[in-house]
Specification:
By secondary structure, the protein is mainly alpha-helical. The protein contains 16 helices and 6 strands. Helix 4 crosses helix 5.
């Protein structure tokens, strides 16, 4: 489809239809009365637009070979223009007469629309039943009270900024149409053939935010250190300062021991085990029997550990993956408690979660498909909160 030409000339067509009442009142009255279609057959509900009928007649006149090569020969083109419609009429009459002879149906005198046949009706009923089954499986989209815009099948939630763009598509289209008519048709300050800017609206196209490389961060740190020491050198030369006294005070926005490029420095929690083992009086591990005791499990860690595998929906994940693991804990314990994480916006771990990236937002409902990238799904705090509540 040539979207650029359609966008340009559809606007002109709409403008012509709006002015039709004043420019051609007779045609406007005929259109208002519904006389803008024609019937090529006597079947009910088979009226088509006039330009559609013209295209059908052109196709019948052209035949299978079309008009390729005729436009280059003036004499051949003239003969085809005169004889083509008559030959097409004779062929159509011949085909119609043969089809009537081959037809033995008693209802041939009572033509019906092609969609009123029994086979078409059975196919339509089948499609309706499949649609109802999918609505019952995925949930009624008209009863969604989450206040978000999401896909019907994948349940991927659109970002608030993109959702606002989708809601403004109609108003944006009206404004662009008014500007097109005013500039190109009324004021004529712009050529009608001037290129039209394409609206780049990708609702469910998620772009990965590019993060700076580690080498670039190191270069930035070196530049900051050069600036700091150059200022220190100039200050010591001008004021006879003491370097030891200079370093007794804070000279950066954040302490270098805790900051990495202006952000909190991250480390591995496993590094603390060596320190804690040294403080323990008895570092040897010993087996503690769990018979008759309670087991406390970290739900967030379990979700990270238990991958979906071959399951298709969140309901299958809960029934086939998560619940069997919890039930297996009762073999050695009489009580199992699950502890879930809570994601506060002002917590210290919010910086670490932001550093890992943001995954695709998706509603967690029983019939929703499990995402292929499980780790990317768990990067979203909203996804984990809904998943924990569901499990």
């Amino acid at each position: 489809m040539d979207r650029t030409h359609y966008a340009r000339w559809v606007s002109v067509h709409i403008r012509d239809m709006i002015d039709l009442k004043h420019r051609s009142p007779v045609v406007f009255e005929e259109f208002s009365a519904g006389r803008f279609t024609v019937n090529t057959t006597n079947r009910p509900f088979s009226a088509i637009a006039i330009d559609h009928a013209h295209e059908q007649l052109n196709a019948a006149v052209k035949g299978e070979g079309g008009v390729i090569g005729l436009t280059e020969n003036e004499d051949a083109l003239r003969r085809w223009l005169i004889a083509g419609p008559e030959i097409a009429r004779i062929l159509q009459q011949f085909e119609t007469s043969n089809s009537e002879l081959d037809t033995v149906d008693e209802t041939v005198d009572m033509p019906v629309h092609h969609e009123m046949k029994a086979s078409v009706q059975r196919s339509f009923v089948k499609d309706v039943k499949l649609f109802i089954a999918k609505v019952e499986e995925w949930g009624n989209p008209f009863m969604d009270d989450s206040g978000t815009l999401c896909g019907l099948q994948t349940k991927d939630v659109l970002e608030p900024s993109k959702a606002a763009t989708v809601r403004m598509i109609l108003e944006q289209g009206k404004c662009q149409y008014n500007d097109f008519v005013k500039e190109r048709l009324v004021d004529r300050t712009v050529s009608i053939f001037k290129p039209l800017k394409r609206n780049k609206i990708g609702p469910f196209c998620f772009r990965k935010i590019a993060s700076s490389s580690k080498v670039r961060q190191q270069v930035t740190g070196l530049k900051n250190d050069c600036v700091l020491f150059s200022q220190l050198y100039i200050g010591c030369q001008a004021r006879s300062g003491n370097i030891d006294e200079f370093f007794e005070h804070e000279n950066q926005n954040a302490p270098p021991s805790l900051s990495d490029g202006g952000e909190l420095r991250f480390t591995n929690k496993s590094d603390l085990l060596k320190c804690l083992e040294g403080l323990s009086s008895n570092s040897k591990s010993r087996h503690v029997p769990l018979d008759g005791l309670a087991v406390i499990l970290d739900g967030a860690a379990l979700v990270q550990m238990l991958k979906p595998g071959c399951v298709k929906t969140f309901n299958d994940y809960a029934v086939d993956v998560f619940n069997p693991y919890i039930e297996s804990q009762f073999r050695t314990a009489s009580r199992v408690d699950l502890v879930w994480d809570r994601y506060d916006s002002n917590s210290l771990k919010a910086t670490a979660r932001k550093h890992r990236g943001i995954g695709i937002r998706r509603h967690v409902v029983p019939a929703a498909p499990v995402p292929r990238n499980w780790q990317a799904f768990l990067r979203s705090n909203e996804n984990k909160t809904e998943l924990f509540k569901f499990l």
